Amino acid sequence: MSNLGLTLACKKYGFKHHASKVGDRYVLEDMQRMGAVIGGEESGHIIFLDHHTTGDGILTALQLIAAMLKAGKPLSELAKLMDVLPRS
């Protein structure tokens, strides 16, 4: 499950997007089956399979800071890459 804005942003920037059943267990199973390296849930659980098999808030924060440093942009600027759309 994810916001439609994420689906559209993935398409726009050339990322593959797959929606799993809700639950870290199902996200992880699909990631392993598909060879994905990042997955998550709308609740905020994000799995970086290169580092761990469960969602980890500290790891997510560190990865976000690394992306900001690499891009040389603040989060407010990077957040503009995706429009969060209302859910129906």
Kindly describe this structure.
This protein is globular. It is mainly alpha-helical. It is built from four helices and two strands.
Q: Which terms summarize this structure?
A:
88 residues; mainly alpha
Structural class: mainly alpha
Sequence of secondary-structure elements: HHEEHH
Largest sheet: 2 strands, antiparallel
Q: If helices are DSSP runs of H or I spanning 4 or more residues, what is the number of helices?
A: 4
Could you give the order of strands across the largest sheet?
1-2
Low-confidence stretches: none
The coarse overall form would be: globular
- What share of residues are in beta strands? 5-15%
CA distance, first residue to last residue: 13 Å
Tell me the helix content.
40-55%
Question: What is the average of the pLDDT values?
Answer: 89
The count of strands amounts to 2
Alpha carbon gyration radius:
13 Å
Concise synopsis of the structure shown:
This protein has 88 residues and is mainly alpha-helical. 45% of the residues lie in helices and 7% in strands. The protein is built from 4 helices and 2 strands; from the N terminus they run H-H-E-E-H-H.
Secondary-structure map with pairings?
Layout: H1 4-13, H2 24-34, E1 38-40, E2 46-48, H3 57-71, H4 75-78
Antiparallel strand pairs: 1-2
